[in-house]
Amino acid sequence: MNTQIDAIINHPKYKAYYLKIQNHEVARSTCKHDMSHFLDVARIAYILNFEKQLGISKKLIYATALLHDIGRFEQYERGIEHEISSASLCLEILIDTGFLEEEILQIQKAILNHRNLDIKDEPTLSGIIYRADKASRPCHSCLVQDICNWPIEKKNLTITY
Fold it and tell me: What is the share, in percent, of the chain residues with pLDDT greater than 70?
């Protein structure tokens, strides 16, 4: 894979933030924000990018997917919406791993919008990350579906990707 992507997951701050999320979610029975989720989002977004021939680089897709929930621990600890904290926390990691200013701005925008319904159909990095994030949840085979706070209309009860 791309050395910048490897550098993200090996960055000391990324590792620290990721561990904080895992510690907060150790007893969580519904969908977790772990590497499986991050990679599912990346892979689904990459498929959407390919199908729609959007031409978004694999590097941008994977970087965004790996970082889109990285501030989740601040939501648990301080009540800060995780898209806001993730967009802020990713800046140092992206700079340290050699991303260009234009790339960083695109990634931060997509992270900030990954819960914004208004962009869900956009043929942009923001749009495909939004759709991939929602499509990544395997509700159809979830053992704790009855305690999930997602409304039935949002649950993925069929396999799309």
Answer: 89
